[in-house]
Design brief:
This protein is an alpha/beta fold. It has two domains: 223 residues, Rossmann fold, CATH 3.40.50.300; 48 residues. It is 27% helix and 27% strand. It has nine helices and 14 strands. It has a seven-stranded mixed sheet with strand order 5-6-7-3-8-9-14, with helices on both faces. Strand 8 and strand 9 form a beta hairpin. The protein is globular and about 70 Å long. It starts with 7 loop residues before the first strand and ends with a helix. It binds adenosine-5'-triphosphate. The site of adenosine-5'-triphosphate (ATP) has 12 residues, from helix 1.
Length: 311
Protein backbone atom coordinates (compact mmCIF):
# COMPACT_ATOMS: atom_id res chain seq x y z
CA UNK A 1 0.00 0.00 0.00
CA UNK A 2 1.21 3.48 -0.80
CA UNK A 3 2.51 5.04 2.44
CA UNK A 4 1.02 8.45 3.18
CA UNK A 5 -1.45 8.26 0.30
CA UNK A 6 -5.03 9.30 0.81
CA UNK A 7 -7.47 6.47 1.43
CA UNK A 8 -9.46 7.77 -1.53
CA UNK A 9 -8.62 10.44 -4.06
CA UNK A 10 -10.67 11.52 -7.07
CA UNK A 11 -9.37 13.66 -9.95
CA UNK A 12 -11.85 15.05 -12.45
CA UNK A 13 -14.03 11.99 -11.89
CA UNK A 14 -17.03 11.73 -14.19
CA UNK A 15 -19.66 9.09 -14.83
CA UNK A 16 -22.10 9.31 -17.69
CA UNK A 17 -25.14 7.09 -17.99
CA UNK A 18 -27.36 7.05 -21.05
CA UNK A 19 -29.54 9.82 -19.59
CA UNK A 20 -26.65 12.10 -18.72
CA UNK A 21 -23.87 12.77 -16.24
CA UNK A 22 -24.32 11.29 -12.75
CA UNK A 23 -20.91 12.61 -11.64
CA UNK A 24 -18.96 15.44 -13.22
CA UNK A 25 -15.50 16.91 -12.52
CA UNK A 26 -15.31 15.51 -9.01
CA UNK A 27 -11.96 16.11 -7.33
CA UNK A 28 -11.33 15.58 -3.62
CA UNK A 29 -9.28 13.52 -1.22
CA UNK A 30 -10.26 11.55 1.85
CA UNK A 31 -7.29 11.10 4.21
CA UNK A 32 -6.83 7.64 5.75
CA UNK A 33 -8.43 6.88 9.09
CA UNK A 34 -11.33 9.31 8.76
CA UNK A 35 -15.03 8.60 9.05
CA UNK A 36 -16.59 10.48 6.20
CA UNK A 37 -20.26 11.20 5.66
CA UNK A 38 -21.32 11.28 2.01
CA UNK A 39 -24.37 13.49 1.78
CA UNK A 40 -26.57 14.75 -1.02
CA UNK A 41 -30.13 14.79 -2.27
CA UNK A 42 -31.66 11.83 -4.12
CA UNK A 43 -29.89 11.35 -7.43
CA UNK A 44 -26.82 13.39 -6.39
CA UNK A 45 -24.39 10.65 -7.42
CA UNK A 46 -23.52 9.07 -4.05
CA UNK A 47 -24.16 5.44 -5.07
CA UNK A 48 -22.33 6.04 -8.34
CA UNK A 49 -19.25 7.36 -6.50
CA UNK A 50 -19.28 4.45 -4.02
CA UNK A 51 -19.72 1.95 -6.88
CA UNK A 52 -16.67 3.33 -8.71
CA UNK A 53 -14.63 3.09 -5.49
CA UNK A 54 -15.87 -0.48 -4.99
CA UNK A 55 -14.77 -1.34 -8.55
CA UNK A 56 -18.33 -2.15 -9.54
CA UNK A 57 -18.43 0.68 -12.11
CA UNK A 58 -15.74 2.10 -14.38
CA UNK A 59 -15.73 5.91 -14.59
CA UNK A 60 -16.30 7.63 -17.92
CA UNK A 61 -13.75 10.34 -17.13
CA UNK A 62 -11.00 11.05 -14.66
CA UNK A 63 -9.47 8.80 -12.04
CA UNK A 64 -10.15 7.48 -8.59
CA UNK A 65 -7.43 5.90 -6.47
CA UNK A 66 -7.55 4.00 -3.19
CA UNK A 67 -4.36 4.23 -1.12
CA UNK A 68 -2.59 5.42 -4.27
CA UNK A 69 -3.70 2.59 -6.57
CA UNK A 70 -6.66 1.88 -8.81
CA UNK A 71 -9.64 0.08 -7.22
CA UNK A 72 -9.36 -3.68 -7.59
CA UNK A 73 -5.55 -3.95 -7.74
CA UNK A 74 -3.54 -5.49 -4.92
CA UNK A 75 -2.11 -2.20 -3.65
CA UNK A 76 -5.49 -0.53 -3.30
CA UNK A 77 -6.00 -2.01 0.17
CA UNK A 78 -8.76 -4.24 1.40
CA UNK A 79 -12.06 -2.65 0.56
CA UNK A 80 -15.49 -3.76 1.71
CA UNK A 81 -18.64 -2.39 0.09
CA UNK A 82 -22.04 -2.61 1.66
CA UNK A 83 -24.43 -1.75 -1.15
CA UNK A 84 -28.03 -0.59 -0.62
CA UNK A 85 -29.49 -3.84 -1.91
CA UNK A 86 -27.23 -6.06 0.29
CA UNK A 87 -26.35 -8.71 -2.31
CA UNK A 88 -26.29 -11.90 -0.23
CA UNK A 89 -27.01 -15.39 -1.57
CA UNK A 90 -30.63 -15.86 -0.59
CA UNK A 91 -30.45 -19.67 -0.47
CA UNK A 92 -27.44 -19.72 1.88
CA UNK A 93 -27.77 -19.94 5.64
CA UNK A 94 -26.13 -17.25 7.80
CA UNK A 95 -23.38 -19.72 8.78
CA UNK A 96 -22.74 -20.60 5.11
CA UNK A 97 -22.59 -16.89 4.27
CA UNK A 98 -19.90 -16.33 6.91
CA UNK A 99 -18.05 -19.46 5.76
CA UNK A 100 -17.93 -18.06 2.24
CA UNK A 101 -16.54 -14.80 3.69
CA UNK A 102 -13.84 -16.80 5.47
CA UNK A 103 -12.92 -18.76 2.34
CA UNK A 104 -12.69 -15.66 0.16
CA UNK A 105 -10.75 -13.44 2.58
CA UNK A 106 -7.35 -14.46 3.96
CA UNK A 107 -7.55 -11.84 6.75
CA UNK A 108 -11.07 -12.90 7.78
CA UNK A 109 -12.04 -12.41 11.45
CA UNK A 110 -14.65 -15.10 12.17
CA UNK A 111 -15.13 -14.04 15.76
CA UNK A 112 -15.89 -10.40 14.93
CA UNK A 113 -18.37 -11.47 12.25
CA UNK A 114 -20.09 -14.01 14.54
CA UNK A 115 -20.32 -11.50 17.41
CA UNK A 116 -22.23 -9.05 15.18
CA UNK A 117 -24.69 -11.76 14.10
CA UNK A 118 -25.11 -13.08 17.65
CA UNK A 119 -25.75 -9.61 19.12
CA UNK A 120 -28.86 -9.38 16.91
CA UNK A 121 -30.09 -12.89 17.86
CA UNK A 122 -30.03 -13.91 14.21
CA UNK A 123 -29.97 -17.76 14.02
CA UNK A 124 -26.90 -19.09 12.24
CA UNK A 125 -28.97 -21.84 10.59
CA UNK A 126 -31.57 -19.43 9.13
CA UNK A 127 -31.62 -18.98 5.36
CA UNK A 128 -30.96 -15.44 4.16
CA UNK A 129 -34.33 -15.33 2.35
CA UNK A 130 -36.16 -15.90 5.63
CA UNK A 131 -34.52 -12.93 7.40
CA UNK A 132 -36.07 -9.48 7.83
CA UNK A 133 -34.50 -6.53 6.00
CA UNK A 134 -32.77 -5.35 9.18
CA UNK A 135 -31.43 -8.85 9.95
CA UNK A 136 -30.04 -9.09 6.42
CA UNK A 137 -28.33 -5.74 6.94
CA UNK A 138 -26.75 -7.08 10.11
CA UNK A 139 -25.40 -10.16 8.27
CA UNK A 140 -24.13 -7.99 5.41
CA UNK A 141 -22.35 -5.72 7.90
CA UNK A 142 -20.86 -8.78 9.65
CA UNK A 143 -19.57 -9.91 6.26
CA UNK A 144 -18.10 -6.47 5.53
CA UNK A 145 -16.42 -6.06 8.93
CA UNK A 146 -15.24 -9.69 9.01
CA UNK A 147 -13.01 -8.82 6.05
CA UNK A 148 -11.04 -6.43 8.27
CA UNK A 149 -11.12 -3.79 5.52
CA UNK A 150 -8.83 -0.79 5.27
CA UNK A 151 -11.66 1.09 3.58
CA UNK A 152 -15.31 0.49 4.30
CA UNK A 153 -17.79 1.83 1.74
CA UNK A 154 -21.33 1.96 3.04
CA UNK A 155 -24.37 3.00 1.01
CA UNK A 156 -27.12 4.08 3.42
CA UNK A 157 -26.18 1.13 5.61
CA UNK A 158 -28.60 1.56 8.48
CA UNK A 159 -31.78 2.61 6.68
CA UNK A 160 -33.76 -0.53 7.53
CA UNK A 161 -32.53 -1.02 11.10
CA UNK A 162 -34.57 -0.26 14.19
CA UNK A 163 -33.17 2.60 16.34
CA UNK A 164 -31.59 0.30 18.94
CA UNK A 165 -29.89 -1.91 16.34
CA UNK A 166 -28.82 1.20 14.47
CA UNK A 167 -27.11 2.66 17.50
CA UNK A 168 -25.50 -0.65 18.40
CA UNK A 169 -24.14 -1.31 14.88
CA UNK A 170 -22.96 2.27 14.53
CA UNK A 171 -21.07 1.78 17.83
CA UNK A 172 -19.45 -1.41 16.48
CA UNK A 173 -18.50 0.43 13.31
CA UNK A 174 -16.92 3.31 15.20
CA UNK A 175 -15.10 0.94 17.58
CA UNK A 176 -13.70 -0.95 14.60
CA UNK A 177 -12.62 2.23 12.86
CA UNK A 178 -10.95 3.59 16.01
CA UNK A 179 -9.17 0.32 16.80
CA UNK A 180 -7.89 -0.46 13.33
CA UNK A 181 -7.73 2.96 11.71
CA UNK A 182 -10.28 1.85 9.12
CA UNK A 183 -11.39 4.60 6.76
CA UNK A 184 -15.15 4.78 6.36
CA UNK A 185 -17.06 6.47 3.53
CA UNK A 186 -20.74 6.28 4.33
CA UNK A 187 -23.67 7.74 2.44
CA UNK A 188 -26.60 8.76 4.59
CA UNK A 189 -29.70 10.94 4.66
CA UNK A 190 -29.84 10.94 8.48
CA UNK A 191 -28.09 14.24 9.13
CA UNK A 192 -28.69 14.30 12.89
CA UNK A 193 -26.86 11.00 13.29
CA UNK A 194 -23.74 12.26 11.55
CA UNK A 195 -22.88 14.78 14.24
CA UNK A 196 -21.51 12.14 16.63
CA UNK A 197 -20.15 9.82 13.98
CA UNK A 198 -18.40 11.64 11.14
CA UNK A 199 -15.25 13.74 11.34
CA UNK A 200 -15.10 14.30 7.57
CA UNK A 201 -17.66 15.28 5.01
CA UNK A 202 -18.30 15.17 1.27
CA UNK A 203 -21.47 16.81 -0.01
CA UNK A 204 -22.56 16.07 -3.59
CA UNK A 205 -25.34 17.67 -5.52
CA UNK A 206 -26.09 17.40 -9.21
CA UNK A 207 -23.06 15.09 -9.52
CA UNK A 208 -20.59 17.72 -8.30
CA UNK A 209 -18.69 18.16 -5.04
CA UNK A 210 -20.18 21.11 -3.12
CA UNK A 211 -18.43 20.72 0.20
CA UNK A 212 -15.52 18.54 1.27
CA UNK A 213 -13.26 18.53 4.27
CA UNK A 214 -12.73 18.08 7.96
CA UNK A 215 -16.00 18.70 9.82
CA UNK A 216 -14.43 21.02 12.42
CA UNK A 217 -12.67 22.99 9.70
CA UNK A 218 -15.87 23.33 7.65
CA UNK A 219 -17.88 24.44 10.68
CA UNK A 220 -15.22 26.97 11.72
CA UNK A 221 -15.35 28.88 8.43
CA UNK A 222 -19.13 29.40 8.59
CA UNK A 223 -21.20 31.67 10.80
CA UNK A 224 -24.91 31.72 11.44
CA UNK A 225 -26.25 35.24 11.77
CA UNK A 226 -29.68 36.06 13.17
CA UNK A 227 -31.10 39.59 13.25
CA UNK A 228 -33.85 42.01 12.29
CA UNK A 229 -34.30 42.41 8.55
CA UNK A 230 -33.64 45.70 6.80
CA UNK A 231 -36.54 46.75 4.61
CA UNK A 232 -37.58 43.61 2.77
CA UNK A 233 -34.28 41.79 2.96
CA UNK A 234 -30.93 41.23 4.65
CA UNK A 235 -28.84 44.14 6.01
CA UNK A 236 -26.90 45.51 3.03
CA UNK A 237 -23.54 45.25 4.84
CA UNK A 238 -23.96 41.47 5.03
CA UNK A 239 -23.44 41.43 1.27
CA UNK A 240 -19.66 41.73 1.91
CA UNK A 241 -19.65 38.13 3.09
CA UNK A 242 -20.30 35.14 0.81
CA UNK A 243 -23.80 33.91 1.53
CA UNK A 244 -24.72 30.23 1.59
CA UNK A 245 -28.38 30.58 2.52
CA UNK A 246 -30.77 33.09 4.06
CA UNK A 247 -34.27 32.68 5.42
CA UNK A 248 -36.73 35.30 6.51
CA UNK A 249 -39.45 34.73 9.07
CA UNK A 250 -41.58 37.71 10.07
CA UNK A 251 -39.22 40.58 10.94
CA UNK A 252 -36.28 38.29 11.53
CA UNK A 253 -33.64 36.87 9.19
CA UNK A 254 -31.24 33.97 9.58
CA UNK A 255 -28.25 33.71 7.25
CA UNK A 256 -25.42 31.22 6.92
CA UNK A 257 -22.34 33.03 5.67
CA UNK A 258 -18.64 32.39 5.16
CA UNK A 259 -17.37 35.48 6.95
CA UNK A 260 -14.56 37.45 5.33
CA UNK A 261 -13.51 39.68 8.20
CA UNK A 262 -15.39 40.70 11.33
CA UNK A 263 -19.12 40.10 11.52
CA UNK A 264 -20.57 42.71 13.86
CA UNK A 265 -23.61 44.91 14.11
CA UNK A 266 -25.99 42.58 12.26
CA UNK A 267 -27.48 40.77 15.24
CA UNK A 268 -26.45 37.56 16.93
CA UNK A 269 -23.75 35.32 15.52
CA UNK A 270 -23.20 31.66 16.29
CA UNK A 271 -21.43 28.60 14.92
CA UNK A 272 -23.76 26.41 12.90
CA UNK A 273 -24.38 22.83 13.96
CA UNK A 274 -23.40 20.20 11.40
CA UNK A 275 -27.06 19.61 10.62
CA UNK A 276 -27.64 23.36 10.02
CA UNK A 277 -24.60 23.52 7.75
CA UNK A 278 -25.71 20.51 5.71
CA UNK A 279 -29.32 21.63 5.41
CA UNK A 280 -28.21 25.06 4.22
CA UNK A 281 -26.02 23.56 1.46
CA UNK A 282 -28.66 21.00 0.47
CA UNK A 283 -31.26 23.77 0.16
CA UNK A 284 -28.86 26.00 -1.79
CA UNK A 285 -27.31 24.01 -4.64
CA UNK A 286 -26.03 27.25 -6.19
CA UNK A 287 -23.88 28.23 -3.17
CA UNK A 288 -20.23 28.32 -4.25
CA UNK A 289 -18.41 25.04 -3.51
CA UNK A 290 -15.89 24.77 -0.69
CA UNK A 291 -13.13 22.16 -0.56
CA UNK A 292 -10.82 22.67 2.41
CA UNK A 293 -7.03 22.28 1.94
CA UNK A 294 -6.92 18.76 3.44
CA UNK A 295 -9.62 17.66 1.00
CA UNK A 296 -7.97 19.05 -2.14
CA UNK A 297 -6.88 16.33 -4.56
CA UNK A 298 -3.08 16.27 -4.70
CA UNK A 299 -1.44 13.14 -5.99
CA UNK A 300 -2.04 13.53 -9.68
CA UNK A 301 0.97 11.34 -10.50
CA UNK A 302 -0.19 8.51 -8.29
CA UNK A 303 -3.81 8.57 -9.35
CA UNK A 304 -4.20 5.61 -11.65
CA UNK A 305 -6.85 5.32 -14.28
CA UNK A 306 -9.24 2.59 -13.26
CA UNK A 307 -9.83 1.88 -16.94
CA UNK A 308 -6.23 1.28 -17.81
CA UNK A 309 -5.00 -0.48 -14.66
CA UNK A 310 -7.90 -2.60 -13.47
CA UNK A 311 -7.75 -6.25 -14.44
N1 LIG B 1 -27.69 2.29 -13.97
C1 LIG B 1 -28.08 3.53 -14.25
N2 LIG B 1 -28.48 3.86 -15.48
C2 LIG B 1 -28.87 5.11 -15.79
N3 LIG B 1 -28.88 6.13 -14.91
C3 LIG B 1 -28.49 5.87 -13.66
C4 LIG B 1 -28.07 4.56 -13.26
N4 LIG B 1 -27.73 4.61 -11.94
C5 LIG B 1 -27.94 5.87 -11.54
N5 LIG B 1 -28.39 6.63 -12.56
C6 LIG B 1 -28.69 8.08 -12.51
O1 LIG B 1 -27.54 8.75 -12.02
C7 LIG B 1 -27.88 9.77 -11.11
C8 LIG B 1 -27.18 9.54 -9.77
O2 LIG B 1 -27.70 8.35 -9.20
P1 LIG B 1 -27.14 7.76 -7.83
O3 LIG B 1 -27.87 6.46 -7.58
O4 LIG B 1 -25.66 7.71 -7.89
O5 LIG B 1 -27.62 8.88 -6.79
P2 LIG B 1 -27.69 8.85 -5.19
O6 LIG B 1 -27.10 10.13 -4.72
O7 LIG B 1 -27.10 7.59 -4.67
O8 LIG B 1 -29.27 8.87 -4.93
P3 LIG B 1 -30.15 8.32 -3.68
O9 LIG B 1 -29.92 9.24 -2.53
O10 LIG B 1 -31.54 8.44 -4.22
O11 LIG B 1 -29.75 6.88 -3.42
C9 LIG B 1 -29.41 9.76 -11.03
O12 LIG B 1 -29.90 10.75 -11.90
C10 LIG B 1 -29.79 8.38 -11.51
O13 LIG B 1 -31.05 8.40 -12.14
Amino acid sequence: MYAGAAALEAHGLGMRYRRGWALKDCSFRLPAGRICGLVGPNGAGKTTLLSIAAHVLEPTQGTLSLFGAAPGVADSGRTAFLAQEKPLFRGFTVAETLRLGRELNPSWDQRAAEDIVRAGDVPFDAKINTLSGGQRTRVALALALGKRPDLLLLDEPMSDLDPVARKELMGILLGEAAERGTTVLMSTHVLAEMENVCDYLVVLSGGRVRLAGDVDELLSVHTMVTGIKEGEGLPSSLAHHPLVESRISGRQFTALIRPEGPVAGFGETDSPSLEELLLAYLRSPDASPLITPTAQAQERDQAYSTRTVAA
